[in-house]
Amino acid sequence: MKKRMAVLVVLVCLAGCATTGPTETVVTGPAGVYTLVTVDGEEVPATVSHGDKEAMVLSGRFTINGDGTCLNKMVVISSTGRKITRELAATYTQDGSRLNIQWAGGGETEGTIDGDTFTMENEGMVFSYKR
Questions:
Q1: 102 CB contacts (<8 Å, ≥6 apart)?
Q2: Are the C-beta atoms of 86 and 103 separated by less than 8 Å?
């Protein structure tokens, strides 16, 4: 009887194991490092216009921390040919997939998280980042 019970337990376990699929990891927060991939739909490096000036965006990184802070770093070549690295710190609040970003020194931007993509519109341009 004990032997039959042991065989039954093993069979139940095997049947249960065979019907379960791989475990998925669910990301619940936006924290991570996002790399700039497009500006206004153009792949980086991208030439952009702001007002009457043009610049080339060489790279960008948007770091979202779990503590409500974030940092945006962008490297551009100005219309005069000068390479400029700009870093801006901010804080954010999250409302579902939306991030309300408050830049240090003023200004506000809204961004959205969709899976591993972070998108924001700032200064009339759309920036898309991938984690």
A1: 90, 91, 92, 108
A2: no
Domain boundaries, the chain: 32-130
CA 131-47-52 angle, to 5 degrees, is: 125
Q: How many CA atoms lie within 13 A of 66 on its CB side?
A: 3
Q: What is the 3-state secondary structure (H, E, C) of the chain?
A: CHHHHHHHHHHHHHHHHHHCCCCCCCCCCCCEEEEEEEECCEECCEEEEECCEEEEEEEEEEEECCCCEEEEEEEEECCCCCEEEEEEEEEEEEECCEEEEEECCCCEEEEEEECCEEEEEECCEEEEEEC
Q: Provide the whole-model pTM.
A: 0.76
Residue written as token pair 């379960």: 20
**What CATH number matches the domain at 32-130, 2.40.128.280, 2.30.130.110, 2.170.150.70, 3.30.360.10?**
2.40.128.280
The rounded average pLDDT for each run of 10 residues, N- to C-terminus, in the chain (131 residues) is 40 40 55 97 92 92 97 95 96 96 94 96 93 96
